[in-house]
Amino acid sequence: MFDVPAPTRSQAITDAVVGGAVGALGCLAVWALSETRWWYPSDWTLRGYLWAVVALGVVLALRRASPGVAALLAFGPYAYLIPDFEPTLVHHLPVALGAYAVVRTGALRWYVALGAAILATLLLFTYAMSFMPDPSELAQLLAVTCFAVALGQTMCRLEVTRAQLEQRNAELVALQGAEAERAVTAERNRISRDLHDIVAHHVTAIVVRAQAALHVSRSRPEKAPEALEWIVSEGKDSLAAMRSMVSVLRADQEATEDLGTSLERVAQRLRSGGLAIRLEVPQPSPEATPAVRQAALRIAQEALTNVALHSGAREASVEVTQPDGALRLTITDPGPRLPGERREGNGLRHMQERADGVRARLSCGPHGPGWRVLAEFPAKFPERRAP
């Protein structure tokens, strides 16, 4: 049997109202017709029609709330205990409707309901008539019974299918909501990484330059304005970078540059702060997808920022090579690492996330007295399709 959803309270009330109305109007119609000059039924025949319309109203009222009770009344007391009359399609309607209701709601298997309805039809026809039944009339009533059962089975399947589709649709909506939340979280993490990498890089350069300006102002006061002008310029660049990140609809500048140009711009910013950077990039610049170029640039930027913050080195090297068509990025500094400094926090985690995003291998760790960051990108990285 199928798992058909139970009727709602409003549906049960509607069925009860409809069943009561059909029973009342049917009795009124039978009485009105019996009072006309065109129909002169006997008392037994009139009572049979009244039984039929009352039974039809009861089955209609219970067809969804209690289909088993409706079928039992139609197949039992109604079929066997009604007075003697010549049965017609009107008298057979309660039996057919009971069979439809019990199959439509899945209360009985269709073949069980069909057998019970056929038996009730045969007994109704032969018991009520005092003469030999007409085979053609009997065949018509049996055909109506079979049609009612088939219709009930079809409607039951349709109802079950509709319920399953609604459930799957609800699951898809929930899955879509979870996927949208995941996408929002991923986008937030991406913006967080970009803000950290860009702003930390600019602020680090400003801090380094400010320290240099403080030292110069003590020994050579005439050089202080030059250092302050650089700090102002770098502060404006930092604000511009932040606005660039907040305005996510604007394309990143690095997406249209080759890797060598972007790395040179990052290196120049830190060189002006007093950190000597040796940049080795093949010419022409290595070919890479925008995602790989962006990841390589941010990893190099974060690694150089860490050198300026956490190392006593005054120089660093950035080397880009292409072994076997792959892209390898190496950032090293000779050290020494500052006492008490630990290279932990969002920077290393963000570098690892960027490497994971383009299926690259990243290793960070001590390299002699200094530090080395090594990122190896695959030779072929498929572009991600837009959702």
Automatic annotation (TrEMBL):
Coiled coil: none annotated. Residues 187-253 form the Signal transduction histidine kinase subgroup 3 dimerisation and phosphoacceptor domain. It comes from the Bacteria. GO terms for cellular component: membrane. It catalyses: ATP + protein L-histidine = ADP + protein N-phospho-L-histidine. The chain crosses the membrane at residues 12-32, 44-62, 110-132. One of its GO terms (molecular function) is phosphorelay sensor kinase activity. Keywords: ATP-binding, Kinase, Membrane, Nucleotide-binding, Phosphoprotein, Transferase, Transmembrane, Transmembrane helix, Two-component regulatory system. The keyword Cell wall biogenesis/degradation does not apply. Its EC number is 2.7.13.3. Residues 339-349 have a biased composition (Basic and acidic residues). Residues 327-349 are annotated as: Disordered. This is histidine kinase. The lineage of its organism: Bacteria, Bacillati, Actinomycetota, Actinomycetes, Propionibacteriales.
